[in-house]
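Task card 7
Instruction: Convert sequence to structure tokens.
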Amino acid sequence: MNVLEMQKGVQQKLNAMEIPIISEDVLWYLNRAQEQYIADQYVFLRGKYTDNQDIQLYTNAQKAMENLRTILSTEEITGTPNLSDSPFYNNAKVVDLTTLTGTFYYYVRSQSKDDATPANLINNRLVEQENIQKYIQTKYNNPIFRDNLVVIEGTNLLVFYDNQTDAGVSSVYLTYIKEPKILSRTTDSDTETTTCQLPSHTHREIVNLATQLARQDRKDEVSRTQRQNFEG
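Output:
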């Protein structure tokens, strides 16, 4: 479906519910729905990498990967300024996420490659930023961990390695979700060709979600008005 078809789809559903809406607001709801849809699918996708023993989680993750395949990207990051030593942590490399070919939206998974011959691939495990003190190598802390650890800090991805990784980190393979293009019209005529960047089989779901969001906002607006009239 192109953007015009998605827009008309939402308007038709809302008209059937007798909910008035202007076309500009429909586009706003479509973009909001696209963001929520990606966020919901990301939860399923990450389930695969947190508990792959659960068959249902794995199945949901496979479906989510198909639903997001057009905005999934894997890149090898190597060499400055893309990959550099951290100026603050002795045992960390810094991946500059702004140098990726797509705009970084969500982290999916990553691996590190060391400088050994032959090179070894080491799994990276995403951890919370609040736990970063546990992984910093200092005079009094010499952490050892099975996998390299990654922390998202602003526009950087920090890759922590322990002193057992003698060859360090020479490159990082990063799989991430790219920020999707905003849904917008390029013409007011029926010749619109701009399409949603997500796979075509997801477009109807986004239309339905946009309709639900607009309907819920309308219900909330009516409830507020009734409450104000009652209190007034």
